[in-house]
Specification:
The complex is a heterodimer of chains A (219) and B (220).
Chain A lengths: L10 H11 L8 H20 L3 E6 L15 E7 L5 E5 L17 E3 L3 H11 L1 H15 L5 H11 L14 E7 L5 H13 L4 E6 L2 H11 L1
Parallel strand pairs in A: 2-5, 5-6
Antiparallel strand pairs in A: 2-3, 3-4
Chain B lengths: L15 H17 L14 E2 L3 E2 L4 E6 L5 E5 L2 H14 L6 H8 L11 H6 L2 H6 L13 H27 L9 E6 L5 H13 L4 E8 L7
Classes of the chains: A alpha/beta (219), B alpha/beta (220).
Chain lengths: 219, 220
């Protein structure tokens, strides 16, 4: 392979050359291999870690007619504030001394640990999670196609294409932040919402009455 | 007792195939690896369980710890074109050298009137430079212009590439432009909300939040 045929034709000459070459046709390749593998390791490590992960979040278009009382049947509202504190209340908000005579809303406290927020959402969203689990089993047994599975799962989450067929019990999460909440907490919350299979969530502005409530709590 | 004859072989083995393979892989990774430029700020992104990868063709909006917004377009050609368009808007003409330097830059967080000085800085100076952020208030919403013109220029270039490909009979795969927000976990959410508002004002309703993959030991 590495031989070069000089082809000078002389028999004696050829014989002499062969003898001279005999000692060193191989070179020690170890350092080269070392270098090659070092570079290889470097590129493998840097190239796999450079790509960041993303989570997709859709934001609603501002409705043309600012209708505030959009109908939400099963809502849980999270109020985020400073020092990683998180409060929530279920259902609609009733201010103090409201006209309907309902008991005013009080906020409950939770935290970002697996015991707190995660279990709370799992518990509140149990019907949907169970329904989706059943669908998944059906899909795994090949009783339904994957497109059907996706469509039905979205339907269970309350995001069906036909608004008339909305499942009314699907949980809706509202995320409200005050002026001191940090971005990390919002991402943690959205992540938890996604992990718990909740289809509808939105980031909305906090009402002054809600702010008063959590201000009283954090004092 | 008869002596056991050990085969007298050469202890060294032929490493040529191994070297071939190693260099093949090195070449592959070198060619596929993209150069990552140093960002002007260190942003500590929060964790999530999402395993989606960042799309190729993005407009990246960074929000640092102090809540200052930064802007970047992944495609260098589009970035230069957008700078030209922004220069027209703010009556600043950039030299060819400045445009070239801008094409090689990463995220920046300076208003247009400081752009020339910022481009002229060396990498070291940029690292030390305390970026004031791209202005996004309603009086001087430069971030909105950057996003709008970046979007327009990207689409124009994509369309050109498409017609070119058609003329030459090549396949053309359009990678849609995506929008990503990379914010520091400790940044105030109000600042991130402002950036989101700029996006929604430009009729962009779906975008990505850049996060780290959580190790996932605290959740079963």
């Amino acid at each position: 392979m590495a031989e070069v045929n000089t082809g000078d034709g002389g028999g004696h000459g050829k014989h002499d050359k062969k003898r001279a070459k005999k000692s060193s046709t191989r070179i020690d390749m170890t350092p080269m291999v070392d270098l090659a593998f070092l570079l290889l390791t470097f590129f493998v490590l840097t190239s796999t870690f450079s790509k960041s992960k993303v989570m997709e979040i859709p934001f609603p278009k501002d409705p043309k007619d600012h209708k505030l009382d959009q109908k939400v049947n099963n809502a849980i509202t999270f109020l985020l504030t400073k020092d990683n504190k998180i409060f929530y209340y279920n259902g609609p908000f009733y201010p103090k001394n409201n006209k309907d005579g309902k008991t005013p809303t009080t906020v409950l406290k939770t935290d970002f640990s697996a015991k707190g927020l995660h279990e709370l959402l799992l518990d509140r969203n149990k019907p949907t999670i169970d329904a989706i689990k059943k669908l998944e089993e059906k899909y795994k047994r090949k009783e339904i196609a994957d497109t059907t599975y996706k469509r039905l799962a979205l339907h269970e989450q309350g995001r069906s294409a036909d608004p008339a067929k909305h499942i009314e019990a699907a949980l809706t999460v509202l995320i409200k932040t005050d002026d001191k909440a940090v971005y990390k907490n919002v991402v943690d919350l959205i992540d938890e919402v996604k992990v718990c299979n909740i289809g509808i969530y939105a980031i909305v502005d906090m009402m002054p009455s809600e702010k008063d409530l959590i201000d009283a709590e954090t004092k | 007792m008869p002596k056991i004859k050990l085969p007298k072989g050469n202890p060294s083995l032929d490493m040529t195939p191994m070297v071939d393979l190693a260099f093949l892989l090195v070449t592959f990774f070198m060619l596929t690896a993209s150069v990552r430029l140093t960002e002007p700020v260190i942003v500590d992104t929060p964790d999530s369980h999402s395993d989606k990868l960042l799309p190729e063709n993005v407009i990246l909006l960074t929000v640092d710890k102090r809540g200052k917004p930064y802007f970047n377009i992944s495609n260098a050609e589009v970035r230069v074109k957008t700078l030209e368009r922004m220069g027209k808007q703010y009556n600043i003409t950039f030299t060819e050298k400045e445009k070239k330097a801008f094409g090689k830059m990463s995220s920046f967080g300076v208003p247009m009137n400081q752009m020339k000085q910022y481009i002229a800085m060396s990498e070291k100076e940029k690292e030390k430079f305390n970026s004031p952020g791209v202005p996004l208030d309603s009086l001087d919403n430069q971030l909105s212009y950057w996003i709008r013109y970046g979007h327009i220029q990207e689409r124009t270039l994509a369309k050109e590439a498409q017609t070119n490909a058609k003329r030459l009979g090549h396949q053309f795969k359009d990678t849609p432009l995506r929008f990503a927000i990379k914010a520091d976990g400790q940044a105030n959410f109000l600042n991130v909300k402002d950036v989101i508002k700029v996006l929604t004002d430009n009729d962009i309703y779906v975008f990505n939040l850049i996060t780290n993959l959580e190790k996932g030991d605290d959740i079963k």
